[in-house]
Amino acid sequence: MGKVTLQSIADRLGVSRMTVSNAFSRPDQLSAELRRKILDEAAALGYLGPDPSARSLATGTAGTVGLLWTTTLSTALADEMSARFVGAVADELNQAGLALTLLPATTDGAVVPARDVALDGAIIYSCDPQLPAVDLLARRGLPLVYVDADAPAKRPSITIDDYGGAKAAAEHLLALGHRRILVVTTGFGPEPGLVTGPPPASALRQRVLAQRWFGWMDALAAAGVQPQVIHQPDPYAPEQLDRLLAAADRPSAALCLTDVLAQALIAAATDQGLSVPGDLAVVGFDDHPLAARNRPALTTVRQDVDRKGRAAVRALLAELARRADPSAEAPLSQRLRVSLVVRESTSG
């Protein structure tokens, strides 16, 4: 037998070429029984389906959605919270018959993913809105959903209540009587060290950092507390933390941008012979899977990262539906709730 084609399968089954094509690209147009019969015949003949590039040209769709990251993919996927987000996005897309393409934000190579990869739409995950890759995706006219980032007008976003969660964390420490409070953060630049003055503009463009920062500072200012702030770009380079914890006027409590920073701080305090929470109470943010398993278990602000991933996909699917039918309802931006989870690192 010669080369297997849609037409040759159609001839063997006594159906039209379009019917065979629909079995692969438009399954909703066929009964389940007929589609299974066509796919079984194609498999028996060793036919995998229409060429993806040709099908994309014919249908005007790529069958895949991009997920843009600021960090390298290896760094992002090494973090359990990010990996869970990716898993939730991939599962939700799979149910819609779409694939997921991970897009690094690089723009300096011969192939620029945000510009050159065929996509039906994209989810922009926790990216600086001034990132060149974000601009490239927007200029392509693709449906876009922003996650953990401020979206331009008429673009949907999925965020969490970072401000409210940070404020609740600070108020928790204040209610316990703490006044010498340390803030441990990243995003202020490449160098670690104590921070004086307001965050740089580049930090405030990062929505998560900015909202958590303002939540802490508003709660502390209302209580008349001026915190110490340390910039810790590498959680596992504790030299600056060691000096701070060894000082006579060391802090009695700490607010950390993430649970990873909080766990690194607890390790540094333990190495200095300090007890947590007796000598230093610590609050994180995110409810990383390790937070409850840590010893002491970490007080933190819980976000539902799985729900966030599913919500992002549903918003993007709604945007895709609007491309096919402009009268379809526009997706709404969502701000998901968070909750303070009190554990041993503040309660003893």
Q: Secondary-structure map with pairings?
A:
Elements: H1 6-13, H2 17-25, H3 32-44, H4 52-59, E1 64-69, H5 73-78, H6 80-95, E2 99-104, H7 113-116, E3 121-125, H8 132-139, E4 144-147, E5 157-160, H9 162-175, E6 181-185, E7 193-194, H10 201-204, H11 207-222, E8 228-231, H12 239-246, E9 253-256, H13 259-271, E10 281-283, E11 300-302, H14 305-324, E12 334-336, E13 339-341, H15 344-347
Parallel strand pairs: 1-2, 1-3, 3-4, 4-5, 5-12, 6-8, 6-9, 9-10
Antiparallel strand pairs: 7-8, 11-13
Helix pairs in contact: 1-2, 2-3, 6-14, 9-11
InterPro entries: HTH_LacI, LacI/GalR-like_sensor, Lambda_DNA-bd_dom_sf, Peripla_BP_I
Protein name: LacI family transcriptional regulator
Keywords: DNA-binding, Transcription, Transcription regulation
Share of residues in helices: 40-55%
| Beta content | 5-15%
Record the strand order, biggest sheet: 2-1-3-4-5-12
- Quickly count the domains: 3
Order of helices and strands: HHHHEHHEHEHEEHEEHHEHEHEEHEEH
Tell me the number of strands: 13
Low-confidence stretches: none
Main pleated sheet: 6 strands, parallel
CATH class category of the largest domain: Alpha Beta
Q: Helix- and strand-based class?
A: alpha/beta
The 3D shape can be described as: elongated
Question: What do we call the CATH homologous superfamily of the largest domain?
Answer: Response regulator
Radius of gyration: 25 Å
Mean pLDDT: 89
CATH topology of the largest domain: Rossmann fold
- Second-tier CATH architecture of the largest domain: 3-Layer(aba) Sandwich
Number of helices: 15
Distance between the termini: 76 Å
Protein name: LacI family transcriptional regulator
Keywords: DNA-binding, Transcription, Transcription regulation
GO molecular function, one term: DNA-binding transcription factor activity
Domain HTH lacI-type: 4-59
